[in-house]
Every structure is written in C-alpha cells, then in structure tokens.
Write a structure and sequence with these properties.
Oligomer: heterodimer
Number of strands of chain B: 9
Largest sheet of chain A: 7 strands, mixed
Shape of chain B: globular
Strand order of the largest sheet of chain B: 1-9-8-3-4
Radius of gyration of chain B: 13 Å
Number of helices of chain B: 0
Distance between the termini of chain A: 35 Å
Shape of chain A: globular
Helix content of chain B: under 10%
Number of strands of chain A: 11
Chain lengths: 115, 111
C-alpha cells in the first residue's frame, strides 16, 4: 500500500457541470476526510467518515456537495452544478482511529478548475 | 479548539538550523501539537507530533515548554528541498479534523 490515492489529479470543467472525485485511503485506516484548499490558504475541512458512516459535514458545505464511502473503503466526492468558486484543490486524508496513532496521511489532491 | 499563530514566512540558507515557533495560548489539557509540511501541488505531510518537552524523529525536533502555550519546530541542517509551507495544529485525534488550518509558515531555503 503506497498511501492515499486520489483520482483524477486535475479536472477542468465548465460551470454548471457535475464532477466526481475518488479517494482510495490506506487500507487499514478507518477514518477518511475530505478537505478543500485554495491558493495561499490551509486546508478547509469538508466532511469525514468513520468506516462507511459519514459522521460530520462542515456547515460551510453547500448542498451541491455530497460524499459517499460505500463499504468503508474508497470514497467519492461529487459536486453538482459547479461554480467558479468551487475551483480549488480537493484533498483526501485518512487516519487510523486508535490510541497512539498520529496525524493524517493526505493524498496529492485533485485540482479542480471551473471555467 | 485552540487557535495557533505562526509567522507568515521565513528565509534561511542551506546547512542552517531553522526554528519555526507556533503560539497556542489556549491549548487544552488533552491537546497534542502536530506539524505538517506541504509542497506545492501536494497534500500536507505529517512531520512530528508531541505533547510536552521534546520529541525528535529522523526529520525534525519539536520543543514544547512546560506551559505548552507555544512550540518550536526545529529542522536541522536544512536543504533546498525543505522549502515548503509548514503548518502547526493543536488538538486531539478526535477533534483534529475540525481544526482551522491557518496559512502556515512559508519557509524559503536559499543556496
């Protein structure tokens, strides 16, 4: 297992289109997180899963955003009716929720450009 | 959730030791201090985590004074490849996902 994988690395879409991103976490990690990052800023929390259950969504997250993690394995993040303000890097991270584990492992992200 | 304050940017030279300080005056008893490194077009990478005193690993040291209201990430003998943004986070593993990541410290290493 080489870490957290995200696909695609880059996505250019027209405003109003739907896009879907995929994240494959480290296999033994039970928690999975989605973040969004814009240029010059730190990551902003969107949502997280423990196994297949989505436990929290940011209040800032528009209804156009939805995430799933079927069977507690990979996760998808869908953005419907994209807007130019959705242009950002979308990061996925995973962690193992056990005592003594440290930090998150992030993927390389999916850079979304809405034109 | 503890708020952190870091310098926006720092410069140094190859071979020098670099210290980046993070202030977290309202750190809670159960909070850990975690540092991440991020290169352009990549996700952040975990560097080091500590609770008190000193922690050292193969890439960095983390110094935490007794009052835990600040911490210092120390990078020994930096190279050009250490040019990156460094983030300090304070929280627990259960709450870390909620943390507001600041803009971090942009470290530029010069030859």
């Amino acid at each position: 297992d080489t870490g957290v994988s995200q696909d695609p690395r880059h996505k250019i879409t027209k405003r109003g289109q739907n896009v879907t991103f995929r994240c494959d976490p480290i296999s033994e990690h039970n928690r999975l997180y989605w973040y969004r990052q814009t240029l010059g800023q730190g990551p902003e929390f969107l949502t997280y899963f423990q196994n297949e259950a989505q436990l929290e969504k940011s209040r800032l997250l528009s209804d156009r955003f939805s995430a799933e993690r079927p069977k507690g394995s990979f996760s998808t993040l869908e953005i419907q009716r994209t807007e130019q303000g959705d242009s950002a890097m979308y990061l996925c991270a995973s962690s193992l929720n056990v005592r003594g584990s440290y930090g998150y492992t992030f993927g390389s992200g999916t850079r979304l450009t809405v034109v | 959730l503890a708020k952190t304050t870091q310098p926006i940017s720092m410069d140094s030279y190859e071979g020098q030791e670099v210290n980046i300080t993070c202030s977290h005056n309202n750190i809670a008893t159960n909070d850990y201090i975690t540092w991440y490194q991020q290169f352009p077009s990549q996700g952040p990478r975990f560097i080091i985590q500590g609770y008190k005193t000193k922690v050292t690993n193969e890439v960095a040291s983390l110094f935490i004074p007794a009052d835990r209201k600040s911490s210092t990430l120390s990078l020994p003998r930096v190279s050009l490849s250490d040019t990156a943004v460094y983030y300090c986070l304070v929280g627990t593993m259960d709450s870390n996902y909620q943390l507001i990541w600041g803009a971090g410290t942009k470290l530029i290493i010069k030859p």
